[in-house]
Amino acid sequence: MSRSYSEVMGAPNELYHWIPGELVVVVRLSRLPADEALESLLEQVRTRLNTFLSPYQLALEPYGTAGRWKGSPTMPPVRRRSFIFGLHRKQPLLAIFFHARHMDPGVADATPMVLSYLQARLDLLAQQGLQIVSAMPNWLVTAAPFYFSEGGPALPPRPAPQLEAPAPSNALIGWRMRLMEPDIPLDTRSAEDVLVAILDSAPHPDRIMSAATRPEFRRNWLLQKLASDLRNEDGAFSVEYDRYPLTNEVRTGRDYYNDARYYNMADHGLAVTGLVRDVAPRARIRLIRVLNDFGGGDLYPLFAALCDLGREMVAGSIRRLVINLSLTIMPDVRRLPYVWLDQRQWPTTQLYGVTRLLEHVEAGLRLLFESLHAHGALIIAAAGNDSVASRQQNAAPRPPRAPARYDSVLSVSSVNSQGQASMFANAANIAPADTGVATFGGDGYGVADGNTFPDAVRGLYIASTFPNGDHNDIGWADWCGTSFSTAIASGLGAHLMAQGWSAANSMIRLAARGDGRGEPPFGAEPEIPSLLGNMIRVQQRFGL
Length: 544
Description:
alpha/beta, globular, protease, Peptidase_S8_subtilisin-like, hydrolase
């Protein structure tokens, strides 16, 4: 490991799972409002909520006017404070972002108190005509130095092995993925009729095209392919780099010892994109930047991007859509009660109130994904990489994180090159659900494959140096994590969607192990029992 390792990776100093003082309220509307009436509607909701909260010395302020935005000129302006979804319903849903403030300036984070009082009197608010279906903090979509939670790849990217292949000196070579499952049908047109939206970190398009001209990267077939797609501007590949405002306060990552460390990972989304392109060579790919260069974010850009995609589906501009989410949100379902209810001193401490509260602090997310699924989107998400400590204690892996654990989402866990559960991999399912699957995602530090190379997924990497300080001279990195398993599953999902499979049937097909004939009536055990999921076999080889 390079001596500069500690200099290029940082350590967070505080732990949070949401942005302090920020929340999202999801209300049910009687009808779809006109665009020009939306701001007036938002103010009406805020006024009604503030009237209710004022006896408790609490208040809500318009998003983007307080909190992180006060006295910080680097914060991007907020032009939209709400997002409409659930357009398949007779009564659509509106997610509104707010700042929460306590009149006592000594209260640093008023969000839990606001949510608790709201959730305790949903009936009263409903009697006043305000139907709140969910109220939740602005959950982190990974981690940060000031705002930090679990997330990120299982390991920092490392230089991939340099191999020689018998080929002309000007031939394009590199790592390629091969499906080993003969019963998963591949589209004869390589999924050209499908859009794969990848919500992730992203390098600027100019940086991708510039990297493709570097002499040491000119033979990297995958980088050259993506750069060519960008230059052609024909929709084969595009990057929405600055459509949604981001802040660099939120950061994520782990070191080789699974301790919290952050590092620049703008290429994480590029590696995911490359794997999708490898598996589905002609699919249209849209890389949407919702995570910053340190792999962190919050619900605001995620809601914005997903709601915009939903509107495109309703308008008919997107016919077949796969959404790749190589990210995780909020603590896992087993940790959530301890995180959210720690040192509570406000109402709804009874069991029924606690149960309802815990459902309410994520119901808005669940409804958002159900809405996209209802519109026909195939949503594929990473189960997460939180299970190293559990493995070391010979315990079961952690459950899949949100959104992977939702019924409307295909959860993807990770196995190594030998088909065994990766040491970091969260379970693919929470029993009795069966909407999860596992595929190749590498393994922990020090684990080797059959060729004595590190057991890892080889993906694109265009930064000049790696987090450990090593120089990058081939454009390939060893990545490990369920993020990269998810990309492989998304590519295969695009093949199924291109052949007319519905999102629901595609989920079943990818998660199933066969046609079920010859199995007991109650079913068969999963191929990877510890992950509660079956396996999609793939193989990565170096060559032309």
